[in-house]
Specification:
Elements (H helix, E strand, L loop, with lengths): L5 H11 L5 H10 L11 E7 L5 H9 L1 E8 L2 E8 L5 E3 L6 E8 L2 E8 L5 E8 L2 E7 L1 H4 L5 E7 L4
Antiparallel strand pairs: 1-2, 1-9, 2-3, 3-4, 5-6, 6-7, 7-8, 8-9
Helix pairs in contact: 1-2
Length: about 160
């Protein structure tokens, strides 16, 4: 991906779209800095994924994933979707979540822990309005593959 910074590489991957090698996305994620704080995520975020062939990506597309809403460290809607009328709504099947600081791949950063599912979403900073995430869900997807996604701060929320 050339001499661009990891942050620039995330933006390039998003703009490019389409299939991308998981190893490429993983390398970029691992080079990103942690979030400045858990509170940085407060607000409403739109969501998108990286099509690495991970089975979870197809699930996000099928569910019409719309992002995440963060009201407080212990008050998160982890899965927002678009309903049949294209309204952005909370998907109750995934429960709520909390934010904590966790070590993931040697970096301490903000992680979102689902209340009713064994899932950890680890976040890294790209810019003030963009973060990259790695969904760690070994009980469903195993440890050989990670679902990578990104969140964009919603200005209209």
């Amino acid at each position: 991906m050339g001499s661009n910074t990891a942050e620039q590489q995330v933006v390039t991957l998003i703009k490019k779209g389409g299939p991308v090698a998981e190893a490429e996305v993983e390398k970029v994620f691992n080079a990103l800095q942690p979030l400045p704080s858990r509170e940085f995520l407060f607000g409403s975020w739109g969501g998108g994924g990286f099509d690495t062939g991970h089975e979870g990506y197809a699930g996000l597309v099928k569910a019409r994933w719309a992002g995440k809403d963060f009201r407080g460290v212990d008050d998160v809607d982890p899965i927002m979707v678009f309903d049949e009328r294209d309204r952005r709504v909370w998907n109750e099947d995934w429960g709520r979540a909390s934010l904590r600081e966790m070590v993931f791949r040697g970096v301490t950063s903000t992680a979102m822990i689902y209340d009713i599912k064994p899932i950890f979403d680890h976040f890294r900073w790209v810019n003030e309005d963009l973060v990259m995430g790695a969904m760690d869900y070994p009980k469903m997807y195993g440890t050989e593959s990670t679902l990578y996604f990104y969140l964009t701060r919603r200005k209209d929320a």
